Every structure is written in C-alpha cells, then in structure tokens.
From TrEMBL:
InterPro entries: DTW (IPR005636), DTWD2/TAPT (IPR039262). It is an enzyme of class 2 (transferase). Pfam families: DTW. PANTHER family: TRNA-URIDINE AMINOCARBOXYPROPYLTRANSFERASE, TRNA-URIDINE AMINOCARBOXYPROPYLTRANSFERASE 2. One of its GO terms (biological process) is tRNA processing. It comes from Nitrincola tibetensis. This is tRNA-uridine aminocarboxypropyltransferase.
Amino acid sequence: MNSQYPRKPFIARGSNVIRCDDCKLPVVACMCSDTLKSNAACDFWLLMHHDEFYKPTNTGRLIQRTFPSTQCSRWSRLEPTEDLISVLANPRISPCIVFPEAPDYSDRMIKDLSKLPNRPLFIIPDGTWRQARRIFRHSRYLDVLPVIEPTILFDSRYKLRSSGEERHVCTAEVAAALLLQIGDIEAGNALLQNFETFNQRYYESKGRNLNAEEGASKP
C-alpha cells in the first residue's frame, strides 16, 4: 500500500511527530495491530486529491487497511491512470461514482443498488468537500458513470477536521454508509470500528479525550 503514495514529506503542524509508516498515527498511538480486516460485498476505488496523500488525518487509508482489495490513484483532471481506465472498461464490474444528487445529473442517479448487473465498484473522490466537488465536476472521463448518493443514517464522528457543513461525513464514513446500504452489515461495522479506533488513538496522542469533548459539547 505504501508504494501507492508519493514520497513527499508532510509539512504542517505535527510534521515533526514520529509516525507509523502504515497507519500514519504517531508511533505511540499506532493502531496497526488492532486493525480489523474484512471482506466486502463490493469494492472501493479512492480517487484521491494529491493533497490527501500527505495528511495523517486522511481516512481513506482506513478503507484500504480494512479491505485489502481497495485501490487508490491520484486524481488528474485530464489523465486518469491506466489502471483506472482498465477497471472502468472491465465488463465484470459495475463502477459508480459516489457523490450527492443534483438536478443536472439526476438521470445518472442510481436509487436501487440491487439492479446493478455486476459487483459494485464505488469510486470515492477523496479530499476536502471542495476538492471532492472539483474531482466530480471536472473529470470528464467519469461523466459516463452512474452516480450513487450514500444514505447517511448517522452523525459524523470525524472530529479531526471540519467541512463547515453539518451533514458532511468523511471518506471512511461514506464507505461504511454504502456498505450498510447494500446490506453488508459485518463489513460496514468493521470499518466503523476501525474508524472509531483511529479517532480515539489520534485524540489520545494529542493528550485529549474524544468522548469527554463530545460529552461537553452536548446540551
């Protein structure tokens, strides 16, 4: 998995922290030995904005670590990677781009996932909300794909970054919602448990208590 990521140092607040090469958490909070592995009734492809490759708060890595079949490529507006082109042409899968519904592409929306003829491949734009919208809107090679909006039945537990939107969830939560949506409860719960571990370990490494902060923020 590491070879998929560009070798550029993370330069931001926290860049001097010694991190695990795999989970990207501080070494003292490494979750590698506690990460659940699972098989899923679908596959995922992370179309990742280049900024996300360097962020230890990225949650797309949790999808890769939970489901080893997950693939990842760096987003390019004009030049998709050859492996992505190849998988989009594979007649044995049903690729879908994951994004909220809007009127200008309502004809591409899929409401009933059971009608997909083959194993679903969910392509998730991975970045901030603004970056994900850019990936979706400016990748002409994705315009032929059906679009699926995940049904979010839970409040986001992602506290490490804020999108500024109440109902936005992070990449790992999007994948978990899709798994629950297709009825793969075991895989969805495995990912959510890994995500919970990630949140807790990250906060503990900063000397903070996630549950205490959440409790204090409730009326």
